[in-house]
Specification:
277 residues, mainly beta, Porin, twelve-stranded antiparallel β-barrel, 1 helix, 14 strands
Length: 277
Protein backbone atom coordinates (compact mmCIF):
# COMPACT_ATOMS: atom_id res chain seq x y z
CA UNK A 1 0.00 0.00 0.00
CA UNK A 2 2.91 2.12 0.05
CA UNK A 3 4.78 1.55 -2.86
CA UNK A 4 6.79 4.71 -3.36
CA UNK A 5 8.28 5.36 -6.74
CA UNK A 6 11.89 6.04 -7.34
CA UNK A 7 12.92 9.58 -8.18
CA UNK A 8 13.98 10.51 -11.68
CA UNK A 9 17.68 10.87 -11.09
CA UNK A 10 18.94 11.87 -14.50
CA UNK A 11 20.19 15.32 -15.35
CA UNK A 12 19.17 14.77 -18.94
CA UNK A 13 17.34 17.08 -21.26
CA UNK A 14 13.85 15.92 -20.36
CA UNK A 15 13.97 14.55 -16.82
CA UNK A 16 10.94 16.02 -14.96
CA UNK A 17 12.20 17.97 -11.98
CA UNK A 18 8.92 17.68 -10.10
CA UNK A 19 8.22 13.94 -10.42
CA UNK A 20 5.94 12.90 -7.56
CA UNK A 21 7.47 10.69 -4.92
CA UNK A 22 4.30 8.84 -4.18
CA UNK A 23 1.80 7.66 -6.74
CA UNK A 24 -0.26 4.59 -6.49
CA UNK A 25 1.71 1.38 -7.08
CA UNK A 26 2.06 1.28 -6.62
CA UNK A 27 3.87 0.52 -5.12
CA UNK A 28 7.24 1.61 -5.96
CA UNK A 29 7.07 1.83 -6.06
CA UNK A 30 7.41 1.95 -4.07
CA UNK A 31 10.09 2.40 -4.89
CA UNK A 32 11.29 2.39 -1.24
CA UNK A 33 8.84 0.73 -0.73
CA UNK A 34 7.37 -1.27 1.92
CA UNK A 35 5.24 -2.50 -0.87
CA UNK A 36 5.28 -2.01 -4.60
CA UNK A 37 2.62 1.03 -5.37
CA UNK A 38 3.05 3.67 -4.18
CA UNK A 39 4.64 3.24 -1.70
CA UNK A 40 6.31 -0.05 -2.94
CA UNK A 41 5.86 2.62 -5.86
CA UNK A 42 9.29 3.10 -3.82
CA UNK A 43 13.15 5.98 -3.39
CA UNK A 44 10.89 8.66 -2.04
CA UNK A 45 13.12 11.52 -3.21
CA UNK A 46 13.71 13.40 -6.41
CA UNK A 47 17.38 13.87 -7.01
CA UNK A 48 16.81 15.44 -10.42
CA UNK A 49 14.72 18.12 -8.76
CA UNK A 50 17.35 18.59 -6.07
CA UNK A 51 20.22 18.90 -8.53
CA UNK A 52 18.28 21.24 -10.78
CA UNK A 53 17.73 23.92 -8.15
CA UNK A 54 14.70 26.18 -7.82
CA UNK A 55 11.29 24.86 -6.83
CA UNK A 56 8.47 23.09 -8.61
CA UNK A 57 4.91 21.95 -8.00
CA UNK A 58 3.74 18.72 -9.64
CA UNK A 59 0.52 16.75 -9.88
CA UNK A 60 0.33 13.10 -10.85
CA UNK A 61 -2.04 10.20 -11.27
CA UNK A 62 -1.38 6.47 -11.20
CA UNK A 63 -3.72 3.78 -12.53
CA UNK A 64 -3.14 0.15 -11.62
CA UNK A 65 -4.66 -3.29 -12.03
CA UNK A 66 -3.52 -6.42 -10.20
CA UNK A 67 -4.41 -10.04 -9.54
CA UNK A 68 -3.62 -11.86 -6.31
CA UNK A 69 -3.78 -15.50 -5.20
CA UNK A 70 -2.66 -16.26 -1.65
CA UNK A 71 -3.50 -18.68 1.12
CA UNK A 72 -6.66 -16.76 2.09
CA UNK A 73 -7.89 -14.86 -0.96
CA UNK A 74 -8.21 -15.09 -4.71
CA UNK A 75 -9.17 -12.01 -6.66
CA UNK A 76 -8.09 -8.72 -8.18
CA UNK A 77 -8.06 -5.00 -7.61
CA UNK A 78 -8.00 -1.83 -9.67
CA UNK A 79 -6.90 1.52 -8.32
CA UNK A 80 -6.54 5.21 -9.13
CA UNK A 81 -4.14 7.30 -7.05
CA UNK A 82 -3.82 11.08 -7.46
CA UNK A 83 -0.74 12.71 -5.95
CA UNK A 84 0.78 16.14 -5.48
CA UNK A 85 4.38 17.10 -4.69
CA UNK A 86 6.55 20.15 -4.17
CA UNK A 87 10.34 20.27 -4.38
CA UNK A 88 12.99 22.89 -3.80
CA UNK A 89 16.72 22.61 -4.47
CA UNK A 90 17.32 19.96 -1.79
CA UNK A 91 14.00 19.28 -0.08
CA UNK A 92 10.56 18.09 -1.05
CA UNK A 93 7.18 16.90 0.20
CA UNK A 94 4.46 14.79 -1.40
CA UNK A 95 1.04 13.33 -0.64
CA UNK A 96 -1.03 10.59 -2.31
CA UNK A 97 -4.31 8.76 -1.70
CA UNK A 98 -5.51 5.70 -3.63
CA UNK A 99 -9.09 4.73 -4.48
CA UNK A 100 -9.78 1.06 -5.23
CA UNK A 101 -12.17 -1.54 -6.51
CA UNK A 102 -11.38 -4.84 -4.78
CA UNK A 103 -12.70 -8.30 -5.60
CA UNK A 104 -11.80 -11.05 -3.12
CA UNK A 105 -13.24 -14.57 -3.23
CA UNK A 106 -16.03 -13.30 -5.46
CA UNK A 107 -17.05 -10.36 -3.23
CA UNK A 108 -16.74 -6.83 -4.63
CA UNK A 109 -16.03 -3.63 -2.65
CA UNK A 110 -15.03 -0.02 -3.27
CA UNK A 111 -13.00 2.20 -0.94
CA UNK A 112 -10.00 4.42 -0.36
CA UNK A 113 -6.61 3.17 0.76
CA UNK A 114 -4.28 4.56 3.40
CA UNK A 115 -3.04 8.10 2.75
CA UNK A 116 0.71 8.55 2.21
CA UNK A 117 2.80 11.59 3.10
CA UNK A 118 6.49 11.92 2.26
CA UNK A 119 9.31 14.30 3.12
CA UNK A 120 12.75 13.93 1.56
CA UNK A 121 16.11 15.65 1.38
CA UNK A 122 19.18 15.36 -0.82
CA UNK A 123 22.34 15.20 1.26
CA UNK A 124 24.91 14.47 -1.44
CA UNK A 125 24.79 15.98 -4.94
CA UNK A 126 28.32 15.49 -6.20
CA UNK A 127 29.09 14.72 -9.81
CA UNK A 128 27.45 11.49 -10.90
CA UNK A 129 26.25 10.62 -7.38
CA UNK A 130 23.07 11.78 -5.67
CA UNK A 131 22.04 10.47 -2.24
CA UNK A 132 19.63 11.42 0.50
CA UNK A 133 17.06 10.41 3.07
CA UNK A 134 13.28 10.25 3.18
CA UNK A 135 10.50 9.76 5.71
CA UNK A 136 7.21 8.23 4.59
CA UNK A 137 4.17 8.28 6.85
CA UNK A 138 1.07 6.21 6.19
CA UNK A 139 -2.22 7.30 7.79
CA UNK A 140 -5.00 4.68 8.35
CA UNK A 141 -7.71 6.14 6.12
CA UNK A 142 -8.48 2.77 4.48
CA UNK A 143 -10.69 0.04 5.93
CA UNK A 144 -8.65 -2.76 7.49
CA UNK A 145 -11.71 -5.03 7.59
CA UNK A 146 -12.29 -4.77 3.83
CA UNK A 147 -8.60 -5.06 2.93
CA UNK A 148 -7.98 -1.44 1.92
CA UNK A 149 -5.73 -0.37 4.80
CA UNK A 150 -3.43 -1.46 7.64
CA UNK A 151 -5.70 -0.15 10.39
CA UNK A 152 -2.90 1.87 12.00
CA UNK A 153 -0.26 4.45 11.11
CA UNK A 154 3.12 3.40 9.71
CA UNK A 155 6.48 5.20 9.80
CA UNK A 156 9.01 4.42 7.06
CA UNK A 157 12.39 6.17 7.16
CA UNK A 158 14.79 5.32 4.34
CA UNK A 159 17.98 6.25 2.52
CA UNK A 160 18.44 6.35 -1.26
CA UNK A 161 21.24 6.79 -3.75
CA UNK A 162 21.54 7.15 -7.52
CA UNK A 163 24.61 6.91 -9.74
CA UNK A 164 24.55 8.22 -13.30
CA UNK A 165 26.83 6.84 -16.00
CA UNK A 166 25.27 8.09 -19.21
CA UNK A 167 23.16 6.69 -20.69
CA UNK A 168 22.56 4.50 -17.62
CA UNK A 169 21.27 5.42 -14.16
CA UNK A 170 21.65 2.94 -11.29
CA UNK A 171 19.69 3.45 -8.08
CA UNK A 172 19.21 1.74 -4.74
CA UNK A 173 17.44 2.27 -1.43
CA UNK A 174 17.30 0.85 2.07
CA UNK A 175 14.52 1.45 4.56
CA UNK A 176 12.82 0.43 7.78
CA UNK A 177 9.05 0.25 8.27
CA UNK A 178 7.24 0.04 11.59
CA UNK A 179 3.63 0.11 12.71
CA UNK A 180 2.96 2.84 15.26
CA UNK A 181 1.15 0.45 17.60
CA UNK A 182 2.14 -1.99 20.35
CA UNK A 183 3.65 -4.84 18.35
CA UNK A 184 3.35 -7.13 21.34
CA UNK A 185 -0.41 -7.37 20.98
CA UNK A 186 -1.60 -10.66 19.49
CA UNK A 187 -4.24 -8.85 17.47
CA UNK A 188 -1.51 -7.16 15.44
CA UNK A 189 0.40 -10.29 14.43
CA UNK A 190 -1.77 -10.69 11.34
CA UNK A 191 0.80 -11.15 8.61
CA UNK A 192 0.98 -9.11 5.40
CA UNK A 193 -1.87 -6.64 4.86
CA UNK A 194 -3.76 -5.02 3.21
CA UNK A 195 -4.78 -6.82 0.04
CA UNK A 196 -4.20 -3.79 -2.20
CA UNK A 197 -0.50 -3.62 -1.25
CA UNK A 198 0.58 -5.93 1.57
CA UNK A 199 3.41 -5.26 4.00
CA UNK A 200 4.48 -6.49 7.43
CA UNK A 201 3.97 -4.78 10.76
CA UNK A 202 7.74 -4.28 11.03
CA UNK A 203 10.24 -4.89 8.25
CA UNK A 204 13.44 -3.92 6.49
CA UNK A 205 12.95 -2.87 2.87
CA UNK A 206 15.33 -2.52 -0.05
CA UNK A 207 15.25 -1.82 -3.77
CA UNK A 208 17.64 -1.67 -6.69
CA UNK A 209 17.28 -0.90 -10.36
CA UNK A 210 18.62 0.68 -13.51
CA UNK A 211 17.34 2.66 -16.48
CA UNK A 212 18.88 3.39 -19.87
CA UNK A 213 18.10 5.85 -22.66
CA UNK A 214 16.59 4.05 -25.62
CA UNK A 215 15.49 6.14 -28.63
CA UNK A 216 14.15 9.67 -28.65
CA UNK A 217 12.66 10.52 -25.28
CA UNK A 218 12.09 6.88 -24.29
CA UNK A 219 13.80 5.10 -21.40
CA UNK A 220 13.61 1.44 -20.43
CA UNK A 221 14.62 -0.21 -17.18
CA UNK A 222 13.95 -2.71 -14.46
CA UNK A 223 14.06 -2.99 -10.71
CA UNK A 224 13.62 -5.39 -7.82
CA UNK A 225 12.08 -4.59 -4.44
CA UNK A 226 12.17 -6.68 -1.30
CA UNK A 227 11.22 -6.79 2.36
CA UNK A 228 12.37 -8.88 5.32
CA UNK A 229 10.07 -9.01 8.36
CA UNK A 230 11.40 -8.25 11.80
CA UNK A 231 9.68 -10.75 14.05
CA UNK A 232 6.46 -12.28 12.73
CA UNK A 233 5.85 -11.77 9.03
CA UNK A 234 6.49 -12.80 5.45
CA UNK A 235 9.42 -12.16 3.13
CA UNK A 236 8.53 -10.26 -0.02
CA UNK A 237 10.24 -9.97 -3.41
CA UNK A 238 8.92 -8.15 -6.47
CA UNK A 239 10.45 -7.75 -9.92
CA UNK A 240 9.43 -5.08 -12.43
CA UNK A 241 10.11 -3.91 -15.98
CA UNK A 242 9.43 -0.31 -17.01
CA UNK A 243 9.22 1.95 -20.04
CA UNK A 244 8.93 5.73 -19.73
CA UNK A 245 8.56 8.78 -21.96
CA UNK A 246 8.69 12.43 -21.01
CA UNK A 247 9.35 16.11 -21.52
CA UNK A 248 10.39 18.72 -18.93
CA UNK A 249 6.69 19.33 -18.21
CA UNK A 250 5.00 15.96 -18.71
CA UNK A 251 6.13 12.37 -18.09
CA UNK A 252 4.39 9.03 -18.49
CA UNK A 253 5.48 5.49 -17.63
CA UNK A 254 4.18 1.93 -17.76
CA UNK A 255 5.44 -0.80 -15.44
CA UNK A 256 4.70 -4.52 -15.19
CA UNK A 257 5.37 -6.00 -11.75
CA UNK A 258 5.56 -9.68 -10.79
CA UNK A 259 5.16 -10.99 -7.26
CA UNK A 260 8.03 -13.47 -6.86
CA UNK A 261 8.05 -14.21 -3.11
CA UNK A 262 5.45 -13.60 -0.41
CA UNK A 263 2.30 -13.46 -2.58
CA UNK A 264 1.95 -9.64 -2.63
CA UNK A 265 0.15 -10.17 -5.96
CA UNK A 266 0.51 -12.40 -9.01
CA UNK A 267 0.94 -9.65 -11.59
CA UNK A 268 0.30 -5.91 -11.55
CA UNK A 269 0.35 -3.22 -14.23
CA UNK A 270 0.82 0.45 -13.37
CA UNK A 271 0.47 3.49 -15.65
CA UNK A 272 1.63 6.84 -14.25
CA UNK A 273 1.49 10.39 -15.56
CA UNK A 274 2.95 13.47 -13.86
CA UNK A 275 2.65 17.15 -14.82
CA UNK A 276 5.08 19.80 -13.58
CA UNK A 277 3.78 23.34 -13.24
Amino acid sequence: MCELHQPDVRRGRWAPTGWPTAVAALAAWCALQPGVARAEHDMGAMSEAHSGGGSALSAGISIEAARFDNVSYLGSHQGVTPSVSWTSSRFGVAAALGMYHLTKNGLSAYGIGDAMFTGHAAIITAGALDAGVALHMMVPTGSELKGFGMGHAMAMPSAWAAWQIRPVVINASLGYSRALVDLGGAEHNHGPAPLVDPMNMQELTWSGGAEVDAVGRIRIGGRVLGAMPIGTGTDRLIGAGRIAWGTPRLSTSFEVQLGIVGDPFTVRGVVETALRF
